[in-house]
Amino acid sequence: MIKTSAQIVVIDDHRVVGLGVKAAFEDRGADASISWAPTVREARWKRGQVAVLDLRLADGSAPDKNIAYINGYGIPVVVYTSGDDPYLVRRAIAGGALSIIRKTAPPDDLVEAVLAAAEGVTFPTPDWAAALDADEDFVAEHLSDLEAHILAHYASGESSASVARALSVSKNTVNTYIARIRDKYRESGRPAESRVDLFRRAAEDGLVSYYD
User: Fold this and answer.
1) From CA 55, how far away is CA 22, in angstroms rounded?
2) Contacts of 25 (CB under 8 A, 6+ apart)
3) 38: Cβ–Cβ under 8 A, 6 or more apart, which residues?
4) Gap between the Cα atoms of 83 and 91, Å rounded
5) CA triple 88-94-95, angle to 5 deg
6) 207, 148 Cβ separation under 8 angstroms
7) How far apart are CA 45 and CA 38, in angstroms?
8) How many angstroms separate the Cα of 116 from the Cα of each of 19, 35, 120, 183, 186?
9) What is the pLDDT of residues 78-122, one digit of tens each?
10) Which SS3 state, helix, strand or coil, does residue 140 take?
11) pTM (two decimals)
């Protein structure tokens, strides 16, 4: 039997989201104790809670690492997101999120997902299924070994000349491959026009780390 009450910790840059979660539970007539924090490290965790987590936080933390950190306290996670980045949604699912709820979904969906999570149960949605259906390894599917190595070096901040020396290819080859890689990301719906964008894509695909 699904509970009708929950202790909730909302992790979101915007405190108003916590107020919205509280209102959703009140409208449903469900009992909820709700706290808020801008990052997972600033929250106070204890067993029996459910985390409602945004995928994009101002501290730049990775969703799967946040979920692992929260799960380490024995606390289930419901992701509450704009859903604008399918990769981050897939990463959250792989990281152990019990449910994914869009912020545009009916408030009842969030309430149901949180109450289900309190029982260790998922609340599947079309977004969850779509993210799983779209899941793929971009590097394995779209990049050659040389392209992946060039991207890893270049996205880390190395110059074309430095990458060329490291991989024993010409500078022109590096530039040609970088242009080709950008095209592939663009075609997949993940534009990487700037070097910063390219770093983000490489980090998302596991070729470089946000934390180095």
Assistant:
1) 19
2) 6, 8, 31, 32, 34, 111
3) 11, 12, 13, 57, 58, 59
4) 12
5) 85
6) yes
7) 14
8) 20, 19, 6, 42, 38
9) 999 886 666 677 778 778 898 889 898 899 999 999 999 999 888
10) helix
11) 0.65
**Contact call for residues 104 and 121 (beta carbons, < 8 A):** no
The per-residue pLDDT for range 132-151, each reduced to its tens digit, is 554 457 788 899 999 999 99
Contact 52, 9 (CB under 8 A): yes
Angle at 100 between CA 96 and CA 103, to 5 degrees: 145
Contact between 80 and 101 under an 8 Å Cβ cutoff? The reply is: yes
Best CA proximity match to 33, nearest among 15, 49, 46: 49
